[in-house]
Amino acid sequence: MDMISNNHQQQQQQVLDGSDIVELVENEKVFDKFVEQKFQQLDQDEDGKLSVTELQPAVADIGAALGLPAQGTSADSDHIYSEVLNEFTHGSQSKVSKTEFKEVLSDILLGMAAGLKRDPIVILRMDGEDLSEFIHRPGYESEMVSVYFSDLSSSEEATSSLRDCIVKALQSLSVDHGMPPSSDPWVMNNIVEPIVDSCLVEEDKREKSLSQERFLEAFKSVVERVAQRLNEQPVIVAHSENTFDGSGIRRLLSNKFEFDKALNVALEIIPKDRHGKVSKEYLRAVLDTVAPSATLPPIGAVSQMDDIIKEALNMVNGDDGKMVKEEEFKKTMAEILGSIMLQLEGNPISVSCNSVVHEPLTSDTFLPLPLPETEERSD
């Protein structure tokens, strides 16, 4: 990442690589205290056990830490939320003891730590200095002229107001420029829109048929105010980058022992009929369980990946509900992973995640990991 080479940004960042989570879980005394605190927060009726309703805040925080959208917004992500809840209740229990809660929480946290070790999250403190440097460096004007001509001078944008053009141009800036993600509603509502509105009088806001000079003048004025605002009230942003290129799947498929082990773990919780057969409708659930071993994101977290998975499932008639022997089920799963691997090797998916952290990193929230705003691109 370009930001890593910037001395100022190096001083303003913290890397979350999962080591703190591992340290927490492996320190029995500290982890017991952590579990006790979280359990008491969730146990609203103080009966010493957690009901399905009481577990919901924990499930929601775990989903957020995994980068999933809120419950109820996606069928695929809701399936994952359901699987997390089933991990606690084992699919049948109505109440969960503190011991059971601790065991499952430990497994989930260690799984997250493994993911962070593979794909660390960088916590950036954005204080306006990098943004100010951007607008005063020699290449600033040519870069914004490029934005003006490529994004703002089309026939559709030519009739947009000055206000709309500036907002759109701000959205083209990234954390590499020192700008918090405008895709985050909090940034838009608390920084972008208030500052744009304060910098432009009503007549200027409605101004159209903009010249290049007029746009650059107004835009620079707004960015200077944004930098000043960040200097007065810095914003904390979580940033991560990852490329899914199929290499993780290839490693898993080439190691039969590890592949069988991952499938056997996933199949333990899948219902079977009296003949030991499994319905193909569970292919998606098993794939989601195996995903970390194949270096794939959770289903529902990356839309481009979901499209590839859907296509791979369709190729094997994954939704026909047919009952098959376990060996055939495993063979079908290998075919699905192989199809996904070939797609990713031909067209890797790069994902950049940026999220404003609205609370301090030492917050008492259940799992203080941010829900990322995700930008996807195919290389």
Characterize the structure shown.
The protein is of the alpha+beta class and 379 residues long. It folds into three domains: 18-118, Recoverin, domain 1 (Orthogonal Bundle), CATH 1.10.238.10; 125-240, no CATH class; 246-347. 56% of the residues lie in helices and 12% in strands. It has 17 helices and nine strands. It has helices spanning 7-11, 19-26, 28-42, 52-65, 75-89, 98-118, 129-136, 140-152, 162-171, 185-199, 202-205, 212-232, 247-254, 256-267, 283-290, 303-315, 326-346, and strands spanning 13-16, 49-51, 95-97, 121-126, 235-244, 278-279, 323-324, 349-356, 373-378. The strands form three sheets. The chain has a five-stranded antiparallel β-sheet. It has a two-stranded antiparallel sheet with strand order 2-3. The chain has a two-stranded antiparallel ribbon with strand order 6-7. Helix 4 (52-65) packs across helix 5 and helix 9 crosses helix 12 (212-232). The longest helix is centred in the N-terminal third of the chain and has 21 residues, at 98-118. The two termini are 16 Å apart. Residues 1-5, 359-365 and 368-378 have low confidence and may be disordered.
| Measured distance between first and last alpha carbons | 16 Å
Order of helices and strands: HEHHEHHEHEHHHHHHEHHEHHEHEE
Q: What share of the residues does DSSP label as strand, in percent?
A: 5-15%
**Whole-number count of domains:** 3
Please give the number of β-strands.
9
Query: Largest sheet, described in full?
Result: 5 strands, antiparallel
Shape: globular
